Amino acid sequence: MSATTADFKPFTRQQMAQRAAADIPEGWYVNLGIGIPTLIADFVPLDREVIFHSENGVLGMGPAPEKDKIEPWLINAGKQYVTMRAGGSFCHHADSFAMIRGHHLDLCVLGAFQVADNGDIANWATSENDTAPAVGGAMDLAAGAKRLWVLMEHTTKDGQAKLVSKCTYPLTAPGAVKRVYTNLATIDVTPRGFVVTSMAPGLSFDDLQARTDAKLHLA
Amino acid sequence: MSATTADFKPFTRQQMAQRAAADIPEGWYVNLGIGIPTLIADFVPLDREVIFHSENGVLGMGPAPEKDKIEPWLINAGKQYVTMRAGGSFCHHADSFAMIRGHHLDLCVLGAFQVADNGDIANWATSENDTAPAVGGAMDLAAGAKRLWVLMEHTTKDGQAKLVSKCTYPLTAPGAVKRVYTNLATIDVTPRGFVVTSMAPGLSFDDLQARTDAKLHLA
Amino acid sequence: MINKIVQTMAEAMEGIKDGSIVLLGGFGAVGQPNALIDGLIEQGAKNLTVACNNAGTGRIGLARLMDLGRVSKIICSFPRSSDPVVFETLYREGKIELEIVPQGTLAERMRAAGAGVPAFFTATGVGTKMAVGKEHREIDGRTYILEKALKGDVALVEAWEADRWGNLTYKQAGRNFNPVMAMAADCTIVQTQHVRELGELNPDHVVTPGIFVDRVLHVPYGDPSGF
Amino acid sequence: MINKIVQTMAEAMEGIKDGSIVLLGGFGAVGQPNALIDGLIEQGAKNLTVACNNAGTGRIGLARLMDLGRVSKIICSFPRSSDPVVFETLYREGKIELEIVPQGTLAERMRAAGAGVPAFFTATGVGTKMAVGKEHREIDGRTYILEKALKGDVALVEAWEADRWGNLTYKQAGRNFNPVMAMAADCTIVQTQHVRELGELNPDHVVTPGIFVDRVLHVPYGDPSGF
Q1: A109 contacts A151 by C-beta, under 8 angstroms
Q2: How far apart (Å, rounded) are the C-alpha atoms in residues D175 and D226?
Q3: What is the mean pLDDT of residues A119-146?
Q4: Average pLDDT for residues A187-206, to the nearest whole number?
Q5: Cβ contacts (< 8 Å) between D186 and chain B: which residues?
Q6: The whole model's pTM is what?
Q7: Strand A177-181 with A148-151, pairing
């Protein structure tokens, strides 16, 4: 990303995750996508009970296990070892996706390649001609969760906007995203389009707009 | 039924059930409808392992309990107390009907008002204008089981044929019945129509045909 | 701290609106949420659509709710349960609407609602009165009809054990429609024989995970054969 | 006496035909029937269609089966598992057909096959490449696509416990696709860590009832992290 326009401090990945975590109330059922979204769990204190779901039939995940306490049969959808909180439960894949597709999850947080200001999300393939794209559970989550948030860098490594007026990559779901947390801002997706609710310290609205393809609005 | 034509001994209900029971091989998963079909279980010896299913999520039922050994939570679809064999299991209604509708039951035996020689069965309502007919699981069983047998009296109490060329009562399922056990005969439903495979002692084929609306064939 | 366990019937019943679709668990007297049905009678919501396997027995429970004129429609597979006197009188007098649904289709329609499936094809009912007016389609050589999901505003469920997250187990044939209805309603209210500490239920043995449950009331009523 | 427990891998694999649709349980290395996959490699059936969440890892198991040219088509949600070298090579060379299915649709299509539902509507994939060529329908204000049941000729499943009637339990996340695949195939073959006496499994805790199981082989392999 070009840093010519201003002297500001982008949020780190941990800060992005922390900000999203702060917005999750107790009692929500939440699925965290592979990658940065997974970090969110680290910033939800255990005494604020948020129930984390994983596609592979795990409900009520706790933090990663200590190395000597790994349960070999206890992994999440990212194939990482996890722990189970008191109150957790296991189910099979059809039941697990019934939770997702039946609108029982309060929230899903995914990474994305692009988000459009009508809520479209593209996060599974970077070309119409991708030879063997891997969709996993992303389409189920995007179409099924009550709310979809995206956690991603504001632009690509070479400075291309990821918040766009129209996705150029193949869609994961149309009109699904409700909020985006980036390293530069928090942005709600509303009937008006993208509405900026907070920005990285030192960043101006114009700076943010310059890094964004779609038109931004102030809250 | 008129008994003027011959000197013969109709099968008792117990004998009807016994004949059907004798035709059930070990290892079959079987649902027995409410009424006479339920008697079949009494004639399958416990050492010939037949696994009985009930719509309310019970698989692997054993005989009725002794009075002082009733489990109040353990009933069958007829709301009778039952026992559980070693190897039995419980499931919920959607899973129980997945067994039925997904063609996992080897056999269902139902009672019926009428069976036609194309395999149509009518067993849930006696008039098109029945005010509040009760279907229960009959349509699921008739459409879903791998085989449907019927156990019923050969005629109504006032001598009307129940084995007909066309059902006049509302159907439970078209073309579903494979075999009928009556108090007079055992009859297979084949592409040729009704084929008689055995008759009550002393009964002639003509006697049987006289009590049957549809044309009968000999095996 | 998440705590779905409510202390009073009034809390359990709070907010049930007139005109709601109410899913009632149980099969026969087993797994039937009798206390919650009495609570609903007390609560007062009317013009209800009730989905239940039967249409009430005698003059208590669901039959009483109907007798009080609070049920405008019943969706069930078997209205001829033992002693269905209240239903039959109301039905004869045209005071209650009846939708008969094959038992497996009833279960599958609710499971579909819970799983985000708005409609599905089934062979059950093809060639019968149940298929009249429904979309027919031949798939791989067999004819099927299209059935729609049945979603509840409220489900009343009976469980054997529950914890404060709403995880449930059932006892034997008491499971029946309960887990299916729990996942099919916007607000699932449970009466449970036993309350367990969080973590007491084995995660491999939970049948209804708490995600499908909103409120839990402890009703240690004992033996269903008394009903 | 019913005894679904077989003594040898050859018995477990008997009769699997060329051209079969094979459902492979497991998610990552957990709950994956590794011994049965090796048995299938040995058995020799070819021109297989394999449904599995992933498309094989490294050069063992499913990857080896593909490497031997025995898989003509793979149906999966995530062909980019760790080290999918065999799949990617075959796919680039046009030697294997790929059907990408969203993970939940994959699970639901198999559950549908097991439950006698030939097709169902779903919102997953609407507005994406997955919906191209599929029937669209608006139901109660939302657009859905029609998906068809996915039935297997054979399912290979891993269980934690099994008895001679074929009742199964699973351990933790080892459950995953296994119970769904068990109900979706004509012939379900299980490898189990533990064999239990009939009656040892609590009827309330059985996850896959024996009605969905055809053959059980005792393979006490231990810890999946070794794979």
Answers
A1: yes
A2: 18
A3: 89
A4: 97
A5: none
A6: 0.97
A7: parallel
Q: How many CA atoms lie within 13 A of A116 on its CB side?
A: 16
Instruction: Name subunits touching D (3+ CB pairs < 8 A).
Output: A, B, C
Are A57 and A76 a contacting pair, CB within 8 Å?
no
Quote the domain boundaries for residue C26. 5-118+151-218
Residues in chain D: 227
Tokens coding B15: 């004998």
- Beta-carbon neighbour count of residue D161 at 10 Å? 19
Question: How many CA atoms, within 13 angstroms, populate the side-chain half-sphere of residue C197?
Answer: 3
d(CA B77, CA B92): 13
- Cβ proximity of A18 and A43 under 8 Å: yes
Query: For chains C and D, what is the number of CB pairs under 8 angstroms?
Result: 57
The string of DSSP letters for C1-70 reads ----EESSHHHHHTTPPTT-EEEE--BTTBT--HHHHHHHHHH---SEEEE-SB---TTSTHHHHHHTT-
Instruction: Tell me which of B89, B97, B107, B108 to substitute to probe the interface with D (most D C-beta atoms closer than 10 Å).
Output: B89
Separation of alpha carbons A209 and A161, rounded Å: 10
What share of residues in chain C are helix, strand, coil (percent, to 5)? 25, 30, 45
Q: Which contiguous run of DSSP H or E holds residue B187?
A: strand B185-190
Alpha-helical runs (H) found in chain A: 13-22, 93-101, 138-144, 205-210
Task: Please give the Cα distance from A140 to B93 (Å, whole number).
Answer: 25
**Inside any domain, residue B1:** no
> Per-residue DSSP letters for D122-186?
ESTTTTSGGGTTS-EEEETTEEEEEEE---EEEEEEEEEEE-TT--EE--GGG-TTHHHHHHHEE
CATH of the domain at D30: 3.40.1080.10
Q: What is the pLDDT of residue A129?
A: 65
ipTM above 0.85, yes or no: yes
Q: Which of B49, B84, B98 sits opposite D2 (nearest CB)?
A: B49
* Count of structural domains, chain C: 1
| pLDDT average per 10 residues of sequence, chain D (227 residues) | 98 98 96 97 98 92 97 94 87 94 98 98 97 97 98 98 98 98 98 98 98 97 65
Active site positions of A, annotated: 55
Q: What pLDDT score was predicted for residue C82?
A: 77
Q: For residues A119 and A142, what is the distance between their CA atoms, to the nearest angstrom?
A: 10
pLDDT tens across D57-106, in order?
889 999 999 999 999 999 999 998 778 899 999 999 999 999 999 999 99
Q: How far is CA B148 from CA B35, B172, C205, D41, D142, in A?
A: 16, 12, 35, 39, 39
pLDDT tens digits, D38-51: 999 999 999 999 99
A162 — pLDDT class (breaks 50, 70, 90): very high
Determine, yes or no, domain membership for C70: yes
CATH of the domain at B169: 3.40.1080.10
The count of other CB atoms within 10 Å of the CB of residue A79 is 16
The amino acid at D61? G
Flag whether D173 is in a domain.
yes
Q: Which residues of chain C have pLDDT under 50?
A: 226-227
pLDDT of residue C227: 41
C167 burial (CB, 10 Å; 0-12 / 13-18 / 19+) is buried
Q: Is residue D133 part of a domain?
A: no
CB spacing of C199 vs A53 below 8 angstroms: no
Which of D111, D117, D165 has its CB closest to that of B87? D165
Q: Contact at 8 Å (CB) between D36 and D218?
A: no
Residue A205, classed as helix, strand or coil, is helix
How many folded domains does chain A comprise? 1
CA–CA distance, B182 with D151 (Å, rounded to integer): 37
User: What residues in C contact B84, CB-CB < 8 Å?
Assistant: 172
pLDDT score for C196? 98
What letter does residue B9 receive in the DSSP assignment? Answer: -
Tokens of C215: 């409120």
